[in-house]
Amino acid sequence: MNSLATKTQKGSKGFVLGVALVLAGVLFAARTANTQQLQKGISVVMATTTSAAPMPEADDEDAWVVAVTPDGSVFFGTDKLNPAELADKMKSIPRRRDQKLYIKADARAPFADVRKVLTAAHDLAFDAAVLLTSQTESAARGTVVPPKGLEVQIAPHSNRATIVVQVDSGEPSPTFEVNDQKIPEADLPDTLRRVLQNRSDTPVLVKTHGPVSFTAVVHAIDLCHAAGAKVMLSTPQL
Question: What does pTM read for this prediction?
Fold first, then answer.
């Protein structure tokens, strides 16, 4: 009798353990399903924004995604390339008429390295690019957050821009100017809304002075988008 009871007890423990493992697997799958969806590629820590638009096509198998890592290294998919090789690589791949270029840059990457990608894109007749970003909102349980990004126009620098936002390198943090007037970061949203009032069709030129991070530039672009403006980044580096 004792032997039978012992076997029954062991069988019950094994069943309970099996159920626990299955439940753990289900809970893990549910948690990971809430992560941001992006095609397989180079992992980076993307800058967080609030006004980015959904870009589900960035997760398509044939999406053109260029990653920029914290040290400024550039990857097309998983292929590490220098800026000249990047242009040659993109030239060698058949491209749809509506093909978009998605830039997945690390928040800590120097913006100068991201601009090299924009320059290569413009040389290949891209007139816009999408800067992929992370989002602050959380997804509903069991759903996948699609990629989001900020679309920017890319073109050679022109002094004809009537609205200019400049991001300057500074210590301990970057500073900002709107039409050559220094603006405290806290006042930047209200200043942009005021300048852009009834002028939402006028592109805002975002430029940099000195070494700044990708995060600082994306922050300015995010505020411009939130104010309803289209943003232009000039090439080459000023």
Answer: 0.78
